[in-house]
Amino acid sequence: MFLQPIDIFVYAWLAIAVLSAIYVAWDQFRGNPEPTVMKWGFVLITLYMGPIGLLLYVMADKEPAPGTHEAFVQPLWKQGVGSAVHCVAGDATGIILAAVVVSVIGLPMWADLIVEYAAGFLFGLLIFQSLFMRKMMGGSYLENVRKSFMPEFISMNAMMAGMAPVMVLLMMGRDMRAMWPGEPLFWFVMSLGVTAGYAVTYPVNVWLVSRGMKHGLMTVRDDAPAQHDAPSQAAKNASHDHGAMASMPAGHAMPADTGMGDGKHDASAGHGMHGGGKTPTRAQLVAVTAFTSLMLIAGMTLPSAFVNMRLSAHEVGKLIMPPGMITTQETPAATMRDMAGIDPRESVYTAPVAAQGDQLLPPQIVDGVKVFHFDLEVIQWSILADRPVNAYAVNRQVPGPRIELEQGDHVRFVVTNHLPESTTLHWHGLIVPNAMDGPAVVTQKPIAPGATYTYDYVVPQVGTYFYHSHDHPDRQQSLGLYGALIVRPTHNPDNLKRLAALHLPPEEVTAAADPAKEVKADHEYTLLLQEWLARDGITYPAMNMEGGLPNYFTINGKAYPSTDTVKMRVGETIKIRFIGSNTNFVHPMHIHGGPFTVVARDGVDLPKDAQFQADTVNVGPGQRYDVIWTARKPGRWLVHCHIPHHTTNNNQEQQGGGGLMMVLDVLDANGHSLPMPAQ
Description:
Elements: H1 6-31, H2 36-49, H3 51-60, H4 69-72, H5 76-105, H6 109-129, H7 134-137, H8 141-171, H9 184-210, H10 233-237, H11 282-301, H12 313-316, H13 333-339, E1 349-350, E2 364-366, E3 369-384, E4 387-394, E5 403-406, E6 410-417, E7 425-428, E8 452-458, E9 463-469, H14 473-476, E10 482-488, H15 493-501, E11 523-535, E12 538-540, E13 552-555, E14 565-569, E15 573-579, E16 587-591, E17 596-601, E18 604-605, E19 612-614, E20 616-619, E21 624-630, E22 635-641, E23 661-667
């Protein structure tokens, strides 16, 4: 599944790498005349580096015509290619295997690098160098380990110096899927890391070959008479086990005189000895060792200035951070998880494009208790016809279902959490028992994924309220976990008895409301506000901070022109309940066509002499305003936020607007909408 635009390139690169490696393996084992270990070295390098490995093979090692391999591979730059291929193939294999194991175990990144270095060095030294080359090197295994140690150490230092920062900065950058081996991006980043490591270690390997400390490319021909002489003393005394190759198992053998004395080298041997007469001095060896060690230290530690290397794949692996988010070496895992986008693969349901949120949910009546079942899930929701987002939804709608109650109702909400994280629900503005209030940790244990929690209380007030997540609400509420809760006055004697039994302090907000005094209108519409951040197919929690600013805005889960249109007639009234279910901004909500009367604020009806007229109310996070608007003239009258950016969709207008905008369509005397203006 393509989650980000880069994924197309990732899959293409990995496919090309596999195909390239298959070709190199076929061509090598079909008859390219070199030792088996080098054949496998080029296959592995091509698998790790893709077309770059294929290019190196064709340009430096593939025999252009029968019988020409010896002369073809003689140039020092090609010998350096062969030396680096042999080094990196072994070292990278150890590093990649360690990276997979460490990611699964869950070690922090700083420990990951240490384990990877040790695994790469030991695999390269003990397996690829000393074991796989033993037959050609001669001598005992331990003797070969001793002779191989210093060149392998120098070469490995240079490789890891290039590979480590590339791996860390890409794995712990914005798209941390790269930290998890189950993601293709992990293997792509490993490929880039190996390529960077090869580029850095290549000049070091050229120097090692030129000084007779490492072999380069070699030629072995199966049709030549085998040489079974014991290794020459010169080969045994070479500073590296591959510094002089004597008695190949078959084909052209390295002569006993390696050329180290007179600076000459036998072209017919086809092996990379360019070190004649140029054995490094002790000072040179110390200088190169010290320099590559400093390179290693810099490569391993420099990323810690930019990313938090105390984090592990278990903590932040698979997270995708919003573009522009600032992360530093101090950014904790909890912050990253809070701001990360929803993984579209976690969505369990795709809502129809025309699906509506804020739909009335009828209760089940059980022994006089109104029971509501809430299922919290990750779904795909369309805020526009062509703009799906991933959301945290209640009962597969955004906003969640509207709950309409009467004062004194005994209610029970059975909440089942199917989200990938814990959650709770808070009943905003209602006076409930503290254990039912919803703040995670403070009043209740968070509802774990897969768990169910029941909220049970008697509703003591009337007015406009709403419910929303109170476990990481900055994340969950901005991803859609909220809904309207409307409480009306009651005539029910059982409700009045329950209300009296609450024994609340005597105050107006909890007194039994007179149904006759309820402010009513010809129409009623509940309007919940939200911001969204959706980029490149990923939905992030919109937050008022760097990297988290929203680019879409919705009324009841839809952005204009997908918002509702309410049809009215001249003289009719509409009661609009503005709910600041958003988590970031104050929205100055304005209605065209004349002022409205503010009749309630935060669920509390205003006395007649306290009501006031306005054409704009600032609806802040958590605030509610009930207003009565009268249709005075026919036409399409807008309800919208008066921050212009909030009436756009990703900063552009569609059909005259966007975002927080809807239409009150007041019909003419014939019951028709006014004609649209000519375009």
